[in-house]
Amino acid sequence: MALGVFQTGWMRLLSLILQGCCVGVLCSDWAVRVPSAPLCAVAGSSVVLPCSYDYPQPYRVLSEMWCRDQSRCITPRYVYHSQGIFPEPASQGRVEYLGKEGTRNCSLRISDLRRSDSGTYVFYFITNHPVEKPPGQPGVTLLVADHSSEVAVSLSPAGDVVEGSSVTLFCCRTAHTPVEGYTWYKTVGYAAGDKRQMMTITNISATDSGNYYCEALTTNRPIHSSALSINVQYAPKNTSVSVNPFGELVMGSSVTLSCSSDANPAVERYTWFQRTESQASLRGSGQSYSITNISLEDSGQYCCVAMNKHGSQSYTVTMTVGKVNGQSSILWRLVVTVGIPIALTLIIIITVACIRRKTLPASSQQGYSLTETTIQQPLP
Fold this sequence. Notes:
Blueprint: H1 2-23, E1 31-33, E2 39-42, E3 47-49, E4 52-54, E5 61-68, E6 80-81, E7 95-97, E8 108-110, E9 119-127, E10 140-145, E11 151-156, E12 161-162, E13 167-173, E14 179-186, E15 198-201, E16 210-218, E17 222-224, E18 228-230, E19 232-244, E20 255-264, E21 269-275, E22 280-285, E23 288-291, E24 300-308, E25 311-324, E26 327-337, H2 347-355
Parallel strand pairs: 2-10, 12-19
Antiparallel strand pairs: 1-4, 3-8, 5-6, 5-9, 7-8, 9-10, 11-13, 13-15, 14-16, 16-17, 16-18, 19-20, 20-23, 21-22, 21-24, 24-25, 25-26
Protein name: B-cell receptor CD22-like
Keywords: Membrane, Signal, Transmembrane, Transmembrane helix
Organism: Salvelinus namaycush (Lake trout)
């Protein structure tokens, strides 16, 4: 009996010790703690980005780093790196790492602030763990205003805003006057529907493009920020091909195919492919493609691929030889392929998508026929 009581008491004590370990240092997990709200500062002043971190024991830290706008600091330049590699020229002489070995403090001081210092700062670190690494970090946002009365705004992530992604708008005021609340506007006088310091737009679309303003409500009066412009970019859409002249064509005549598409940035390249029963061929590039002295060999599908840096979309027209009142003529049929954005490097897959369309049967009773079919291409 005594032995059983002793074993039970020992197991409870061991359980409590293990629980204490997991709350403290010995069983700590990957973590980086930075402020979730944006930090606001005035140009010429200094600011400290508060930061602390944890990692599993008994591993040790090999390197610590701060970067901008990269969740894992995979970047050619570092705001700070413990090994002094690839420093950001604009940050040299203005940053001071406040962390000390063993303290798990990763705070960073930035002096002589400039407006260009506005952005999202991310802390990341590497340990000697053989497999695991810290997860990607959202970072802390810093907004630098030219003067203390200004309401500063910023957008994260930096860079192109692509349709379907998510962005966060930040707003703050550097003055010590209390701010009772914030309101976001899209163009002056139109409320964007958010009354917080940060506004997130998910699944952003082209209709979200425009100028955004933040209004800080103080005890005295509302103060507006300068405009924060958002230009939503997207892959080609609404691609189409026009045929000129359209209708019944006779052998030996000429025709021009013209391709158009809506894209932001504008279409960088239009490419034309022809598919016959036996092969597929690249026919040319440019917004228009002309066929002169039409003959039997020109029969087939003509596919226009519109491309920009965000993706592509194709549109196919089919030209076949048929008979109308006993005479050979050319019949046009149109098939639109509504594509989903795919990488520019997949031009071969686009070509295959073009050439796999089945030729529509030619009518023997009409001079021409026009049909439109929407075909969703699968992701490669």
